[in-house]
User: Fold these one by one.
Assistant:
Number 1:
Amino acid sequence: MVINDPERIKGLVIEGFDADSLNASSYDVRVGSKALRGGSAEEYTVTTEKPIEMEPGSYVAVMSAEKVRLGSKESAILGAKRNLSYAGIILLTGMQVHPGYEGHLVFGLFNASGKTFWLQFETKLCTITFLEVAERPGLKTNGADKDLASGKFPPGFIERFAEFKTQGWIGLEKSVGIVTTDLAALKTELQSLRAKVDDIHGPIKKLTEDVTRVSEAVRVTDETVKALAVQHGELMKDVAGLGRDHAERRGRNTVIISIVVALLSIAATSFWNNYLSPMLSKAAHVETGTRAK
């Protein structure tokens, strides 16, 4: 059952009670004077003059201005305030407070917006609705938190919070900007490289065409040389044949000439002996006789 009696709620909020935070069925929990910065666990004192600066993507922990004390028959549930949600501030906390708890409440806040947010002292963080529950004999309750009951952050929480890292939106945007710039530079370099490749591609293409033409000319020349070699071989065979014919004809001519010379010699000898020599002898004899007379 919801506890909505103001006096009873006032009895549950044992420190920091503010009548302006009372609602019909709940109470508005406010930002207290202590906060921690995520990633460093640096403790920050919050005042009216010193609000909490939350950069985009940052995370802080705040302690409530109120301290509550619940009996064994009382529990509470928490709910986020819309004004923080509208500003892009996300409330990170457990949603239930168990019977027997005593101490301040701790809330995690994350700035999911793209702007710096100033969390003011005593800003209403969330609503707490107190409930009356049936007591369960023998059930052990959480009881008081000695650190939060005295208004201190628990050492274990501080240690874990110091290791908590977030990537702020500004840092993320810067990283994205650097990557974008690098990509643009890489694109420009690739375009320049492509232009150089295109400049080289033209001469290479022409050289390739020239090489193709030369290769074709060499092929044709090689075939021509092979054809000429074949023709040369055939010509040499023809020349060899002509040489053999010439030698044979020369041999035959030599024999014929020898025969002709021999016949002429025989004929001349016969002519000399049978005709010319007797004729000359006779003429010489006649001339000798004439001289004697």
Number 2:
Amino acid sequence: MFIYLGERALGNLARGLEAQTWGFKDKYRDADVRPQFVIFGAKRTSLGPRAKAEAWLAGTLYLYICRFTGDFYTGRAPLWDDEVESSTVIYPVRFGVEPLFDLSEVAASNDGPLGARASDAMRRSGVDGSLGKTIDYDPTPLFALRGLPGSQVAFAATRGIEPESIPNKTRRRGAARSQDSRLTAAVEAHAVETARQLLIDEGWTKIEIVGKPYDLSCERDGTILHVEVKGSTGAATTVFLTRNEVQHARDFQPTWLIVVSDIVVDRSESPYKASGGRVHVYKDWEPAPEDLRATQYEYAIP
């Protein structure tokens, strides 16, 4: 799927990549087609998709390559800044995106790494209000530009996308909402309570909130279960894990991972009030090395 974004939408792109979620205002015509990749594009030059064809093809693009994750769903949680400020869902047709890497100054020409059909799909997306355009496309040439052997590389082999790589992005005031401690506390508490109720419904007893290096402990028919819980206002795409959380899941089984996504948070109250959400349960969970990507290092100063 190709999605072109104009300059005014780049702030929403930064938030979407941060939340690993994207959405459309209108019903997406190809919602029954599940693409493998989502490629966002922004024009390197001032000429956009409505310019003459020769001007478009002569330009270059910033590209943000992501994997499409999960399925299309109807979002109920305000996520982007304009949604949060109006307390309404403006982009309800949503899906998860797993940021892999970015590229700059990619030729939009027919003989460039995008090729004629993909370049045209990107242009048509811009003309059509940034709706996604899905075509058959092998992104191997783009992976090669990043030095990766092919499009099926493991998540661990990719470097991710930093918001700083997005040119001329503008964010509304208060945009760093993911760092709002009140929001984080409300989402985490609601996710744990949702997971606890699910375990009760499945017949687990002696449920205790542990906290670290896992969230919940429970028992059923003599089996002790440990549960790691994660919550998000966006899609269930990736989660952040500490080293101890990973090691514990590898050392102790059975361990489940429960992710509660699309959590709605009412910010008009203090403390914030969270509700709803989509529940995803991963039983016998043991994080594999190829599914883990380092985002931080501890450095020993010489």
